[in-house]
Amino acid sequence: MLKGLQKRLAGVLYDCLSEIEESEKRKNNLSHAYRRGFSIISNARVHHSRRFVLNLDLKDFFPSFNFGRIRGFFLANKHFKLAEPVATLIAQIACNDGLLPQGSPCSPVLSELLTHFLDIRLVRLATKNKCSYTRYADDITFSTNQKNFPAALAAPVGESWALSNELKSRVQDAGFAINDEKTRMQVRAGRQTVTGLTVNQKVNVPQHYYKLARAMTHKFLSTEKFIRDGAEETSLQSLEGVLNHIYHIRERQIDLAIAAEKNKERQSKLHEERERAKKAFPSAIRLVYYQLVFFKHFIDPPKPLVICEGHSVYLKCAIRKLAATHPKLASVENGKINFNINFFGIQNSRVICCS
Asked: What secondary structure letter does DSSP report for 204?
């Protein structure tokens, strides 16, 4: 019941956030988390091909928003100025033990509303020092192509870097603390990463992660087991998630490049060329993914598999009619029919061919 209430509250607050940005005729390009059209890719793209990339992390991000802070925001913010009972009720719905919990449906949008003040303070400091600035939840990044990184943000101390008093002061005055253990400066000569993606020349998945994914897939296809983070796993879904992440990042870059093409005719031609290349020369990650999909559906399917020459709609209708007398094909629970077999029809033929 509480989760349902938090989801309703989150929906209302997201609508409010959209109205605020539309009324001020601005698009928030500073925060890239919990927003439609933004992702770790859009966050990383801002900082690719830079001489210096500075990353810092906000400590205990969600718990840093307490009951009083949330309530005070809705009382004082010019876009809300809610009555005290309403502001109190919103804070009560959102908080657990007086703090904003991680995993709550309304925690992300509340963090976005309350962190915008920090974004404004830090982007002004970044602009003043000719740097780019973005934030992805609790992950903050500054970057620049200047010959020397601005001392007003950070300066070298021995073999490490120390944040400036001004930068730390602006973060602390906004009600946050910096996790010093995760502060790092990355220079062009070494590998630069932003929200887990390399940004030296273009946004991409780190090569070691890609090689690890291929090794884990090969191990799984041979033994149905693989090692991840030092522990043995047997979950095909977990491995499929890793490959989906790599595929999405790499393929998404091509989609963005095509979308950025202003000439519509040229854009259409690039799209056609890409589709032809997919069929003629599938990428290495695509081939690895095909092998896993083939294993999932044909070598070790979770249920008996029926391969249809055409569409399976007629066969499904027949099974629904006979479900009560053929429990091995389908079961009926609370009036709902659940198939005990899987179907692989004409719509999946591309996977079969490519495998």
From this structure: B
Q: Residue 276 — pLDDT band, cuts 50, 70, 90?
A: confident
265-269 own/partner pairs: CB under 8 Å, 24+ apart: none
For the whole model, what pTM was predicted? 0.82
Segment 110-135 mean pLDDT: 96
DSSP state of 346: G
Q: Which amino acid is at 113?
A: L
Residue 296 CA to residue 355 CA, distance in Å, equals 12
Angstrom distance (rounded) from CA 134 to CA 128: 15
Which among 16, 121, 18 has a CA at the least distance from the CA of 73? 16
Burial 9-28 (b: 16+ CB within 10 A, else e): bbeebbeebeebeeeeeeee
Amino acid at 266: R
β-partners of residue 232 are 227
The residue-averaged pLDDT of 255-259 equals 71
For the CA atoms of the chain, what is the radius of gyration?
25
What the block records as the tokens of 293 is 């999909």
- Measure Cα distances from 189 to 46, 87, 164, 186 in Å: 19, 50, 23, 8
- The top-scoring range by mean pLDDT among 122-126, 158-162, 286-290 is 122-126
User: What percentage of the chain exceeds 70 in pLDDT?
Assistant: 93
How far is the C-alpha of 186 from the C-alpha of 151, rounded, in Å? 15
Structure tokens at 203: 């946004």
